[in-house]
């Protein structure tokens, strides 16, 4: 799950657990807090901007069930519900990437994208969110082949989000936006193919 020098690897592992999210069914690496301290949850009126007005909470229209549905680990629900814009970016780096991305989408356009529903009995490794982080290798030969693959093979690997864009049927033109190196050209080439 993590490669680093001995002490750094153990320090990383001490603060993480791997679990299947109860609502989404995806495997997640969840960051665990080192120390649990009871902190009173601030009320809307307790947080103020520099202008003296209350700082708006980004997710005040959402509830704990909404956050669970998009993959926010239970340990982080209260933090997310109380987050204003500045605090959200600090919290987001501790969340599983798919949960942080869905929250950012909500903060941006007010829509909460939900993951594809899967059967409760489904294998967590088959979940698209799991496939973003985990790859099961059957044997040492498969690992050796992956590590020895030329860069060209790695460059055309599709992330599940990219795979969705490649396979999706659009009713007209579509625009894919992303910063440099995010794989826009790879998506376009797969669509052309």
Explain how this protein is built.
Helix content is 40%, strand content 5%. It has 193 residues and is mainly alpha-helical. The protein has a two-stranded antiparallel ribbon with strand order 1-2. A hairpin with a 6-residue loop joins strand 1 (16-20) and strand 2 (27-31). The longest helix is centred in the middle third of the chain and has 13 residues, at 97-109. It is globular and about 55 Å long.
Notable traits:
single chain, 193 residues, mainly alpha, two-stranded antiparallel ribbon, 10 helices, 2 strands, 40% helix, globular
Please, what is the average pLDDT? 82
Please bin the fraction of helical residues.
Answer: 25-40%
Low-confidence stretches: none
Number of strands: 2
Number of helices: 10
**Share of residues in strands:** 5-15%
Q: Terminal Cα separation, in Å?
A: 33 Å
Radius of gyration: 20 Å
The helix-and-strand class reads: mainly alpha
